[in-house]
Amino acid sequence: MSTQFRLLGAIETRTGGGVLEIGHLRRWCVLAVLLLDANRAVPVDQLVDRVWGERPPARARETLYGYVSRLRAVLAPTADVRIARRPAGYLLTVEPDAVDVHRFHRLVTAARGIRDGEAALTLYEQALGLWRGEAFAVLDRARFSAELDRNDLALACGRHSRVLDTISAAAIAYPLDERLAGQLMLALYRAGRQGEALASYRHLRARLVDELGIDPGEPLRELYQRMLRRDPTLTGSLFTEDLAGAAAGRGAVAVRAPVPQQVPAPPRTFTGRAAELAELSAPAAIRAIVGPGGVGKTWLAQRWAHLHRSRYPDGQLYVDLRGFDPAGAPVAPSVAVRGFLDALGVVPEAVPADLDAQAALYRSLVADKRLLIVLDNARDSAHASRLLPGTAGCTVLVTSRHQLAGLVTAHGARPLALGLLTDPEAHRLLAGHLGRRRVTAEPGAVDELLRHCAGLPLALGIVAARAAVRPGLPLAALATELDEETTRLDALDAGELAVNLRAVLSSSTRSLTPAAGRMFALLSLAPGPDVGLAAAASLAGLPIAATRVLLRELTAAHLLAEPDPGRFRMHDLLRLYAAEQADRLGERSAAVRRILDHYLHAGYAANRLLAPFQDAIDPAPPAPGVSTTPAGDHVQAQVWFAAEHANLLAAVDQAGAGLDTHVWQLAWTMATYLDRHAHWHDRATVHTAALAAAQRLGDRGAQAYALRGLAQAQIWFGHYEQARAQVHRALDLLDDLGNPAERAHLHRVLARSYARAGQPRQALPHDEQALRLYQAAGHLCGQAVALNAIGWHHAHLTGNEQALHFCEEALALHEKIGDRHGVATTSDSLGYIHHRLGRHDQAVACYRRAVEAFDELGDRYEEAVTLANLGDTYAAAGRPDLARANWQRAASILDELGVPTGRAADGAARDPARQLIPKTRATGKRHQATASHRPEGTRCLVGAPSHAAGGSPQPERPG
Fold first, then answer.
1. Closest C-alpha among 333, 337, 335, 262 to residue 301
2. Cα-Cα-Cα-Cα dihedral of 142, 148, 154, 158, to 10°?
């Protein structure tokens, strides 16, 4: 189709050669009416009525004939559009899909007619993506109806995060629509914002009673009651797929993994920037949005991303590179790439150790996708270039305070220099915050406010927040306060910031209560990009409840953001200003000590839940006022570490300025989590810092621990000789310190380095030495782990009966001390050994015990891997029905976890169900995320080659 007609927004006609000039508004109206009834004759009287309404001109028909004649002339060069006169009226013939209105209706009709929830949701998104602005009233009603249907479907598919912002905005425009209100309640509830969901119902009910004298309908009242009793069915997805089938015998289901939608929503008061938004829409693979701090680069990128989400069916990736964060170093490309790999569904064991390999994997994954990639706050061109895709199918938005000339010259990026808001835009932004009535009441004061804010969106937002929270405060009083301030906030980059921002910030903080002002200043001392409630309480030395009140005051004043419930973030310019205030408090040393104590003790408690049999350190008691709210169980501990990961890394850096004991002990608290999630670079970084700190302290025991932690990371990089050198250094440090358990741990690391290198014969003596040392120390858990490892080595050296003896002894010891995970892993080892001996009944019994234990512990990945091995045993025993059932159960769990599936590499299993299982323990490859927490001697790592086909064992690391 060479001609395209757009009615869903600003009306325009496009051909291959550009935009057709139709003429004045009435002529456009005639064309629009004909397009709405395309391929159907429209009577002349009806045309007149639709174009002029109740006030047609005296010679309406003659005028209409002239308009149609001119339209024919304009459209004559197009081969696919014609206007003909028929007895029934005028007929415009055109391909329906050439008119966006008809494409919209076709897509909506198709979406309403299919049962596949994901496919229907895609059609709704495509339909609504055709809208570029306001259209005719009748079309707006159709759009709203389609949006409601789309919302219902998105919520049914578990996509509440994708539509929450859209639903929230629509609820403001249609405040009494009960269907929309129910969608908003459900989206908020599923986003973990239950209080807001209930509050939105109460607000709607009060408004219905006041304005219409009625209560909400029964469906909305019932939804409210279900939320009050926390009905568990409200949190689920309705569209699932039974992947296990009847053969699996347990009706397992897998929810389809959503495409990444990581770009945060822009502020609802976003205004202006029409020219910039249009320029970003021009064809370009890479766009660089550059400008001074606080000018709205991030907001513009987020706004454009949400407006054009339908262009990118494979999703949106987003990372804040923190190139100008005054509190810490920029985000390393390795961290950003790893985050993108996680979002793209790459499981930890598939992530290469080398950064270049990670970047290559990332480029390969996005090569055939249509993705939007937003690289926010890049320090410079080099900071962003490692994250660029290798093909032109994706669109990249980069924001920075630098000009990014390197991206422009080397990668063809198209720059967009973002300046300050124009006076009309700034005025509209202020009116959006305060309401037009208040702004028009004091035009002189508004002019002064705009002059002081100088078109900087951040400054305008802060001033508006002050005025909004005090509706009785005259705007003239605010203008006077700003005028009194004479100092300036230093520019972060020379020449970038030329606005009176310090005056704005100073006047805003003066309106705070003294306690909130103190909290504002102390928050600048928090390590990392954000801070949790307990960490903020520790900074200030206050109870949790009192801290929550102060944080609410700061967020209401727009001095603090809460992007996620309970997580608080400060704009970098605000943080710089707050740091100046913190220097005046004289509390820096005590506050930093408190928050580092918080991270140390909270991390210690969480780590004990993840690894209860790990040898524990003995941190000093926390300072008074430190909050160490513990996680309730191992699941909550994982959630805590995930939320605090970046902050803990920053805490290690912060502690390096004089709190060396905190440095190495923080590294200890993080080790298990970093191992289980395959963050090997982070493990190496924190243990390198731990080693330097321990050397400054002269603490040889701490040095030995740090060397061991560093060696464990190096093993995963394949640097076996370097790892062994670190271990031998640690052993030398322990020569006259005794500590046989620590020496045993070190020998286990040596054994692991040889096993990972495929040398079980060299690994065996070190695990035997570890066993002797564990026995001397009375370390029962270590003995069980070493026995299992020794059995594993014998299994790979063809000593199956010896392997059986050692692993059975390990199992008995794990059972004695109550190490449930050790029982599970050793049972899996025994299952592998029995399978190799041809004892299929015993192998099945061991594998089933391991499956039950992993299921009880909630270790779904290990459960799936053991199920795959169990299926292999059933296949070898001639029970293909049970083999298929267990393979399908394994595939179902892996799909549920979002683990990509593919054909087994060994080619041993010919059954299509077995080929769904990816390379896991069943094919001689071990899941690194779960394997990596064993260096502390808590359990044995049990890897297994593909024994379904009787293949020769491939040595793997034992633990």
1. 262
2. 180
The strand pairing partners of 528, in sequence order, are none
Per-residue confidence at 792, pLDDT binned at 50, 70, 90?
confident
Tokens of 366: 């996005």
The β-bridge partners of 241 are: 254
377 φ, ψ (degrees, to nearest 5): 60, 50
pLDDT (0 to 100) of residue 796: 86
| Cα(68)–Cα(30) distance, integer angstroms | 8
CA dist., res. 108 & res. 378, Å (int): 40
What count of Cα atoms within 13 Å lies in the side-chain half-sphere of residue 620? 10
- Picking from 727, 649, 720, 725, the residue whose alpha carbon sits closest to that of residue 690 is 649
Task: Outline where DSSP puts E strands in 469-586.
Answer: 531-532, 561-564, 567-569
Using alpha carbons, select from 456, 490, 506 the residue that is nearest to residue 326.
490
**CA-CA distances (angstroms) from residue 9 to 132, 149, 289, 425, 668?**
5, 21, 26, 21, 58
β-bridge mates for residue 242, sequence order:
253
CATH of 787-949, one of 3.50.50.60, 3.40.50.300, 1.25.40.10, 3.40.50.620: 1.25.40.10
Q: Are 555 and 561 in contact (CB under 8 A)?
A: yes
Classified as helix, coil or strand, 308 is coil
Instruction: State the fold for domain 4-98.
Output: Arc Repressor Mutant, subunit A (1.10.10)
How many Å is the Cα radius of gyration of the chain? 32
> In sequence order, which residues have a C-beta less than 8 Å from that of residue 532 and are 6 or more positions away?
566, 567, 568, 643, 644, 647
Q: Which residue has the tokens 């009625």?
A: 214
Pairing mode of beta strands 372-378, 395-400: parallel
Structural tokens at position 936: 């502390």
Q: Which residues, 6+ apart, have CB-to-CB distance to 186 below 8 Å? A: 155, 160, 197, 223, 234
Given a contact cutoff of 8 angstroms between Cβ atoms, the answer to whether 860 and 901 are in contact is no
Q: What is the DSSP letter of 24?
A: S
For domain 286-295+316-417, the CATH class is alpha beta
The per-residue DSSP string of 396-460 comes to EEEEESS--HHHHHHH--EEEE--PPPHHHHHHHHHHHH-HHHHHH-HHHHHHHHHHHTT-HHHH
Q: What single-letter amino acid sits at 763?
A: A
Which residue in the block uniquely carries the two structure tokens 């990392």? 528
Q: Which of 430-439, 460-469, 482-491 has the lowest mean pLDDT?
A: 482-491
Amino acid occupying residue 256: R
Cα 310-316-318 angle, rounded to 5 deg: 145
The CB-side HSE value for 901 (13 A sphere, CA atoms) comes to 26
Q: Where are the alpha helices (DSSP H) in 76-217?
A: 100-112, 117-128, 137-156, 160-173, 178-190, 194-212
| Angle at CA of residue 808, ends 803 and 810, nearest 5° | 95
Question: Would you say the pTM of this structure is higher than 0.85?
Answer: no
pLDDT at 215 over 50: yes
Nearest to 872 by CA among 941, 798, 949: 949
CA dihedral of residues 267, 272, 275, 280 (deg, nearest 10): 0
Q: How far is CA 775 from the centre of its chain?
A: 46
| 101 confidence band (pLDDT: 50, 70, 90) | confident
The C-alpha angle with vertex 445 and arms to 442 and 451, in degrees rounded to 5, equals: 140
What tokens does 182 get? 């129910």
**Chain mean pLDDT for the chain:** 80
Strands 316-320 and 241-242, how do they pair? unpaired
**Candidates 1.10.150, 1.10.10, 3.40.630, 2.30.29; CATH matching 512-655:** 1.10.10
Report pLDDT digits (tens) over 668-713: 999 988 877 768 789 999 999 999 999 999 999 999 999 999 999 9
CA atoms of 780 and 782, how far apart (whole Å):
5
> Which residues does 840 contact at the CB level (< 8 Å), separation at least 6?
834, 873, 874, 876, 877
> Would you call 221 helix, strand, or coil by DSSP?
helix
